[in-house]
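Morning run. Coffee first, then this:
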Amino acid sequence: MSAPRRAAHAMTSKEALNLLSIMKLGVDLGAFPEHQRLQIDELFIDTQPAHLQKNSQQKLNAEERDYLRAQIIRDRLKIFPKPDISKMVTESGNGLTNGPPSNE
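And here it is:
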């Protein structure tokens, strides 16, 4: 995930939805703190085409929206914690356990 966080100069709505969905899965699995869920949800809304248009207070074409979307995501994720995979919930036998999967 570090490439989209630091290098994206343009991001389509579909790419943003995919990235944010993966990040939300990361919260569900415990890689990100639960309190970060709200920030991800806000990004889902704020990066939609209509919200980008409204917040910029001007008419934007698709390319301009893609650049603005990438900038918003990049700025907001600067303070987002890195994933901690040691806290991830994994499926093990009869139920869920915390911690990385074993190599058994």
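The CA atoms of residues 11 and 17 lie 10 Å apart. Good start to the day.
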